[in-house]
Design a protein that fits this description.
Elements (H helix, E strand, L loop, with lengths): L2 E2 L10 H9 L11 H13 L4 E5 L2 H12 L5 E5 L3 H4 L4 H6 L2 E5 L8 H7 L11 E7 L12 H14 L2 E5 L3 H8 L3 H4 L5 E5 L10 E5 L1 H13 L8 H14 L3 H16 L4 E2 L9 E6 L6 H10 L2 E2 L8 E4 L6 H17 L5
Parallel strand pairs: 1-11, 3-4, 3-5, 5-6, 6-7
Antiparallel strand pairs: 2-8, 7-8, 9-10, 10-12
Helix pairs in contact: 1-11, 2-11, 3-10, 12-14
Bound molecules: ligand TLP.
Length: 349
């Protein structure tokens, strides 16, 4: 048995994706001659309500190209304190763009607009860096896959506009937010200048992300992508499964969300597991162990030996992520394993 819930990044391409890769019409994407890439970029821009879009190799590259295209060296970017950009991208914003992050702690991934306003520097004194950008993450990974409400995005947008700064969304899982809330992706992204969307997570494509925004910014992004070595040649091979993902894999995310809810409710019924199932918005289930003599690491390792794979992004909580390659029956099996291990009171040492 192997039930892999370490991440939705472990999803394998579907048959339709493999077939699309095989049959993809391709060209050189450097001079923009790959018809499949052009089709994908047009479709994605439309779906995200933006003028233009660019294929990038990964979510990290999409976020970094967005920062590079909209900030200058020595600028400051406002990020939620536990956002992926600042926690899990190898400090690329500092290394590549030379920007400094200003970490604003949020509640369930949501930054209070008053805190954001207070964090924006008056650019009147050489002591201060220039605040160039507000970054939001939707859904928010570290905070449990939660959805950033529209009124919060709107309030942040108003601040960004008033201060003349840019706004970027790490929308790695923005389609999860769209499906779970019933709000079209283009309505969610209306408040940001640029949005990065991963196709390798719940959508199941093997490679690729999209960065969408206004035509001028995306043109600048083409230069930065090139500098980062992310401009590919016959990239239609990569873009073809992403087209399939957009057409076929978005609506089914609802199934992953229902499975996450089911998993969380099952975990909540197990003695010694600490989780509030009402807080599950999308496909991520974070939980703690509250049993004397047993740690999260003990349970994670014991689960691993039983073929139930989870992850630990930060010490102190286990993350299970639901996705298309784990079905309801497997989730039931995983729950049985966790329930038994909790009774056995396992230790990793
Ligand atoms: N997240 C991965 C790991 O990096 C932890 C995961 O398993 O959740 N933004 C967000 C919100 C992400 O969750 C991720 C990946 C990225 C950006 C980066 O995407 P990639 O891995 O394509 O560079």
């Amino acid at each position: 048995m192997r039930i892999d819930m370490r991440s939705d990044t472990v999803t394998k391409p579907t048959e339709a994706m493999r077939k699309a890769m095989y049959e993809a019409e391709v060209g050189d994407d450097n001079p923009r001659e790959d018809p499949t890439v052009l089709k994908l970029e047009e479709m994605a821009a439309e779906r995200l309500g933006k003028e233009a879009a660019i294929l990038v190799t990964s979510g990290t590259q999409g976020n970094q190209v967005a920062i590079l295209s909209q900030t200058g060296r020595g600028d400051e970017i406002i990020v939620e304190a536990e956002s992926h950009i600042v926690m899990l991208e190898g400090a690329a914003h500092a290394v590549l763009a030379g920007v400094q992050p200003r970490q604003v702690p949020g509640k369930r991934g949501v930054m209070n607009p008053d805190d954001v306003r207070a964090a924006i520097r008056p650019f009147i004194d050489p002591h201060y860096p220039k605040t160039a950008m507000i970054c939001v993450e939707n859904t928010h990974n570290f905070h449990g896959g939660c959805i950033v409400p529209q009124d919060n995005l709107k309030a942040l947008r108003e601040i960004a506009q008033e201060k003349g700064i840019r706004m970027h969304m790490d929308g790695a899982r923005v389609f999860n937010a769209a499906i779970a809330s019933g709000i079209p992706a283009s309505e969610i992204t209306q408040y940001v200048d640029t949005v990065q969307v991963c196709f390798t997570k719940g959508l199941g494509a093997p490679v690729g992300s999209i960065l969408a925004g206004d035509a001028e910014t995306i043109n600048t992004a083409r230069h930065w992508r090139k500098r980062l070595g992310g401009t590919l040649r016959q990239a239609g091979i990569v873009a073809a499964p992403m087209v399939v993902a957009l057409n076929e894999m978005v609506d089914r995310l609802a199934e992953d969300h229902a499975n996450a809810k089911f998993l969380a409710e099952g975990l909540a019924n197990i003695e010694g597991i600490d989780i509030d199932a009402s807080q599950i918005d999308t496909n991520m289930v974070y939980f703690k162990v509250s049993k004397e003599g047993m740690t999260e690491m003990d349970l994670l390792v014991a689960c691993y030996h039983e073929g139930v794979l989870g992850g630990m992004l930060a010490p102190g909580s286990i993350r299970f992520v639901t996705h298309k390659d784990v079905n309801r029956e497997e989730i039931q099996q995983a729950l049985q394993v966790v329930s038994r291990l909790m009774k056995e009171k396992v230790t990793a040492s």
